[in-house]
Amino acid sequence: MDINLESMRRVFVNAVVLVLSLAVFAQESQIKTGPVIKFEETLLDFGVITQGDTVEHTFIFQNMGTQPLKILSARGSCGCTVPTYSKEEVRPGAKGEVVVRFNSAGKMGKQNKTVTLVTNALSNKTVVLTVRGTIKRKDTED
Which of 25, 63, 71, 74 has the fewest CB atoms within 10 Å, measured from its CB? Predict the structure, then answer.
């Protein structure tokens, strides 16, 4: 009788593990369908620049999903950080870009600016790109 009880416990445990594994697999499959955005990088550290300099950087992303990806909006954290991006959909497997321009006029010291993207991706709908560095004073000549 103990052998049958032990066998039944093993079968039950294996069945529970199988059901949980299938649930996790099904959830992962759902996440990968539809548009999925993946950036090569989300941070630019531009180091030290002189006050008044402008830094421009292109952030590259890829649609890792199964349906077209679209950036719905892009907003800089202040007027000195301006994003531009393609308004067209990015096909599955294709790459796109977001160009961020930071103008350091009137800025001093350490800076940490962001661009917030809203996409039609099923997960990770909002992506934050960061531009940071230090602004040094422009030497004045008389």
Answer: 25
